[in-house]
Specification:
single chain; mainly alpha; two-stranded antiparallel sheet; about 0% strand; globular
Length: about 475
C-alpha cells in the first residue's frame, strides 16, 4: 500500500528542485570567488563568508524538507495568521532593530542576524492567495480591489519605516499577479505611465526646445497625457469624433503656439498645454454627462491624476528622497557621472564584467574581485563576480537557468486547480522576476542601485531562506494538486 510520504515524493516537481539545487551550487561558488582571499582558511571554515553561506545552504535544505512534510492545507488554513504575525514582526523591528548602514531592518539574535522583510514576502503571497480564493472575491469590485491594495501596501509601509526602500519596492511585483487574475489593464498602464512621466520629467527638466523657454521634459509628458486621453477614448468608447477632437485639436493648437513662440514672441508652451488639458477634461465631463458614460469621466480623472503625478514627482525627488538616492537616480539617467561616489559601484561592476570577456578569467582569478574594487561584491553585486570569472558564457548560463525556472513556475502555476495555488505560484515567480530584473539591471547600470539580492546567489541567510520558503511552499501546494482535482 502506498503511504502518504511515497505519494508526496512521486508528485513533487523534481525538475524545479533540480534547477533550485543548480542555482544554489552556482551561488555558493560565486560567493567563494567573491569573498575568498589567498592565504585564508579553506572554503568550509565557518569563520569565512563562504563557510557561513555553506551553513545557510544546509539549513535551507532542512527548511525545504520541513515545508514539504507539512500538509498543503495548512498554508491555506493559516495564511492570515502568518500574515498578521509577519506584520507584527515588521512593526516591532522598526523599534528594536539596531541601526545598520542607515536602516533598522535587521534583528540580531546572538551570532545570527535576520531580516524580517525577506520573510514577509511569502506571508503576503499567502494572504493574497487566501483572499483571492474566497467565494465572494471579484477583482472588479472596488471593495475587493482596495483590500488587495491594502494587503500589499501594509508590509511596504512597514519596510519603508525601517528605511529599506529597496526591499519595499519588491512588493510592487504583486501587481503583476493581480493583472494575471483580471485586474483592468488600465491600472498596469497607469503604472507604466508613472515611470515614463518620472523619467522624462527628471531627465529633461533642464533641456529646452530650440530657442523657446519650454522645458522638453515637462512638454513631452503633458503632450503624452493629451495623446493618451484621446487614445483611451478610442480604446474604451470607439468614438472617432471625440478622439479626433482631442488629439487633432491639441496637436493643431500646439503647432500654432510653437510657431508663435519661435518666430513672434517666445513663451513657455507648457502654459498652452495647461489650458488644453483643462479644455480636454471639461470636454470629457461634458461627454460623460451627455452620453451618460462614466468612462469619459474616468479618462478625465486619469489626465488630471497624471498632471498631479508629474508635479508631485518633482517635489518628491527634490524634498523627500535622500541626497544619495537622488544621486543614484541621476547617475542612471545620465545626469551625473560621479565615478567616485554613487556611480562607483556600477562603474567598477561594469569593468569587472567587461574584463571577463567571452569565457572569463577562471574561478578565483578575478582581479577586480580579488582587489575588492567592487563594494558589496558578494551580496548585491554578486553577478559581477560571475561575469568576471565565468565570462559571457557563464553569465548567459546563469540567466538561462533563471529563465528556465521562471518558465517552469508559469507552467506549475497554470496547472493549479484552485485560485489559491495559482495566485501563490504567480506571486513566487513575480518576486523572482523582479529581483532578477532589478539586480542584474543595477549591476549593468540600467536601473538605480536599490540594494536587493540576486536569488540563491547573494550572500546571506535571510534572502536564501526567504527564497527557499517561497519556492518550497509552492512545490508542496503543487504536489497536493492531484488530491484537489
Amino acid at each position: 500500500m502506498e503511504t502518504r510520504s511515497d505519494s508526496l515524493w512521486k508528485s513533487l516537481d523534481w525538475f524545479t528542485i533540480g534547477i533550485y539545487l543548480l542555482l544554489i551550487v552556482g551561488g555558493w561558488f560565486s560567493v567563494c570567488g567573491a569573498s575568498y582571499d589567498y592565504g585564508e582558511p579553506d572554503f568550509l571554515d565557518f569563520s569565512t563568508r563562504a563557510g557561513k553561506q555553506f551553513v545557510w545552504i544546509i539549513c535551507s535544505f532542512g527548511l525545504g524538507f520541513v515545508l514539504l512534510m507539512l500538509e498543503d492545507r495548512m498554508y491555506d488554513m493559516f495564511a492570515y495568521l502568518i500574515y498578521i504575525g509577519m506584520i507584527a514582526l515588521l512593526l516591532v523591528t522598526i523599534f528594536i532593530a539596531p541601526d545598520t548602514k542607515g536602516s533598522r531592518s535587521w534583528l540580531v539574535m546572538g551570532p545570527v542576524s535576520l531580516q524580517p522583510a525577506e520573510f514577509a514576502k511569502f506571508a503576503t503571497a499567502l494572504a493574497l492567495a487566501k483572499y483571492m480564493n474566497s467565494y465572494s472575491f471579484n477583482i472588479k469590485k472596488e471593495k475587493c480591489a482596495l483590500i488587495l491594495v491594502f494587503l500589499i501596501l501594509l508590509p511596504m509601509l512597514m519596510i519603508v519605516g525601517q528605511r529599506e526602500t529597496g526591499s519595499a519596492l519588491v512588493y510592487l511585483a504583486f501587481f503583476l499577479v493581480l493583472y494575471r487574475e483580471g485586474m483592468p489593464g488600465v491600472v498596469l498602464f497607469s503604472g507604466v505611465c508613472a515611470v515614463v512621466y518620472f523619467v522624462l520629467g527628471i531627465r529633461y527638466d533642464q533641456v529646452f526646445i530650440a530657442d523657446t523657454p519650454t522645458p522638453i521634459g515637462e512638454f513631452v509628458v503633458l503632450l503624452l497625457i493629451l495623446l493618451f486621453a484621446g487614445g483611451m477614448v478610442w480604446v474604451f468608447r470607439k468614438k472617432w469624433v471625440p478622439t479626433r477632437n482631442i488629439i487633432g485639436g491639441s496637436l493643431g493648437v500646439l503647432l500654432i503656439a510653437y510657431l508663435l513662440s519661435e518666430y513672434v514672441i517666445p513663451f513657455n508652451l507648457v502654459w498652452v498645454q495647461w489650458g488644453l488639458i483643462l479644455l480636454v477634461v471639461s470636454y470629457l465631463i461634458y461627454l460623460s454627462l451627455s452620453d451618460r458614460q462614466r468612462s469619459y469621466l474616468l479618462i478625465g480623472l486619469f489626465a488630471l491624476g497624471s498632471v498631479g503625478f508629474l508635479y508631485s514627482s518633482d517635489y518628491v525627488f527634490d524634498n523627500i528622497l535622500e541626497p544619495h538616492q537622488q544621486v543614484r537616480i541621476k547617475v542612471v539617467l545620465g545626469l551625473e557621472e560621479d565615478l567616485t561616489g554613487a556611480g562607483y559601484n556600477v562603474n567598477q561592476s561594469k569593468i569587472a564584467i567587461g574584463s571577463g570577456g567571452l569565457t572569463g578569467k577562471g574561478f578565483l582569478n578575478g582581479t577586480q574581485t580579488k582587489l575588492k574594487y567592487v563594494p558589496e561584491q558578494d551580496t548585491d553585486f554578486i553577478f559581477c563576480t560571475v561575469g568576471e570569472e565565468q565570462g559571457f558564457v557563464g553569465s548567459a548560463a546563469v540567466l538561462l537557468a533563471f529563465l528556465i525556472l521562471i518558465l517552469r513556475l508559469i507552467v506549475l502555476a497554470e496547472r493549479q486547480p484552485t485560485a489559491f495555488g495559482r495566485v501563490y505560484g504567480y506571486s513566487v515567480l513575480s518576486i523572482f522576476l523582479f529581483h532578477l530584473f532589478i539586480n542584474i539591471g543595477m549591476v549593468l547600470g540600467l536601473t538605480p542601485v536599490i540594494g536587493i539580492p540576486l536569488p540563491f546567489f547573494s550572500y546571506g541567510g535571510s534572502s536564501l531562506w526567504g527564497f527557499t520558503i517561497l519556492l518550497f511552499i509552492f512545490l508542496r501546494i503543487d504536489a497536493g494538486r492531484s488530491r484537489r482535482l
